[in-house]
Design brief:
alpha/beta; 16 strands; 355 residues; eight-stranded mixed sheet; eight-stranded parallel β-barrel; binds pyridoxal-5'-phosphate
């Protein structure tokens, strides 16, 4: 085994996918499996597909490129950049859009590649990240997409609870549905997709308050980590698919207050200390270059995280019952940001486990 190690249980993720597909089906919703949390790992994408997910989505083209061999439809869930429309058409069947300049370029790229590219227009319901805020602009963009060769307007979408802390609600979801219906009647078309929200929309759905016309949710965190709105556990999912393992490289008894602390720490902050006497401290070979200290929680509740620097994590092992030694492996639970950081760090080994 190599450490630090991010251990990813594919059976747990597959079972979460099965349960999310089933839960959503009761409400006429098909989930898109969002893979960005693990950088589009093909093992993850495969587990989602095995769990019944038919569309895979990611925010980054580089991640989508990692599972091109899978037959599932691929959706680019971050707005395409103007400079990469050719790659978008090559790697994604569907993209989420809100800019006319990019739509025109996408159309040209699709014509050049002799491909049809499907478009979901993003409308901003108040969370203030992507999407047109103005309904007339979304209506106008719909007309534009309908006029552009090799683009197919398949739906309307929105993102919530990512920047502005706006939770998906019956009100904002109904507003999206009403706008979709306006587009349908104005241009005499049928939109096959209303993509209401991310995992944050599951609460509304399970509370039976999601309008029935919303038929797609884009699910990443709920399938991978079993969490949704406000990072709370999602019913019918498991939260323990992912763990971080790090190795102890030093164990020493030391005072809890430094000897004459006058300088700043490695990150330019003034450190503060509580005198708890002599403590047993363990050093792990992982640091803030890999993960923020506040994103990790030791699975052994008797361990406390004291602090860290770029390459080191300092733990207090004094109250532990288990016998930690040099070379022992300490296990941590991670927050969403922690999983993302560990997945991104090239120094953290990834291991995909079953069972
Ligand atoms: C990240 C993202 C999602 C998935 O969010 P989760 O909270 O992981 O379910 C859905 N849609 C968009 C546009 C995103 O950027």
């Amino acid at each position: 085994m190599q450490y630090p190690q991010l251990s990813i249980n594919l059976d747990t993720i597959e079972s979460n996918a099965v349960n999310m597909v089933k839960s959503c089906k009761d409400y006429g919703i098909k989930p898109v499996g969002v893979t960005k949390l693990l950088l589009g790992a093909p093992e993850l994408a495969q587990a989602m597909v095995a769990g019944g997910i038919e569309i895979l989505g990611d925010a980054r083209l580089k991640n989508l490129a990692r599972y091109q061999h899978l037959t599932a439809d691929k959706m680019l869930i971050r707005l395409p950049s103007f400079s990469e429309v050719d790659e978008v058409v090559a790697l994604a069947d569907i993209s989420l859009n809100s800019e006319s300049t990019v739509l025109c370029a996408l159309s040209e790229a699709a014509v050049k590649a002799n491909k049809q590219h499907r478009v979901v227009l993003m409308h901003d319901l108040g969370d203030l990240r992507e999407g047109c805020f103005d309904e007339d602009e979304t209506l106008w963009l719909a007309e534009l997409v309908l006029s552009l060769p090799n683009l197919e307007l398949i739906g309307l979408g929105s993102n919530l609870a990512c920047y502005g802390g706006v939770a998906p609600s019956a009100d904002n979801q109904n507003q999206l549905v009403a706008l979709a219906e306006k587009i349908e009647s104005k241009y005499n078309i049928k939109l096959s997709v209303i993509s209401g929200a991310s995992s944050a929309g599951l609460t509304l759905m399970l509370d039976k308050e999601m309008p029935s016309q919303v038929n797609q949710l884009r699910l990443g965190a709920s399938v991978i980590m079993g969490i949704g709105l406000n990072d709370e556990p999602v019913p019918h999912t498991q939260q323990d698919a992912i763990h971080l393992h790090a190795e102890l490289i030093e164990i020493k008894h030391k005072p809890s207050v430094p000897t004459l602390s006058t300088a700043l720490d490695a990150f330019g902050n003034t450190p503060e200390f509580v005198d708890r006497g002599i403590r047993c401290r363990g050093l792990c070979a992982i640091g803030r270059q890999d993960v923020d200290i506040d994103q990790i929680i030791p699975s052994d509740s008797r361990i406390t995280v004291v602090g860290g620097s770029s390459d080191h994590l300092i733990l207090d092992l004094t109250d532990c019952e288990s016998d930690y030694q040099i070379g022992s492996v300490v296990t941590f639970e991670l927050g969403y940001g922690g999983v993302l950081q560990c997945a991104t760090s090239e120094f953290v080994h990834k291991s995909y486990v079953r069972g």
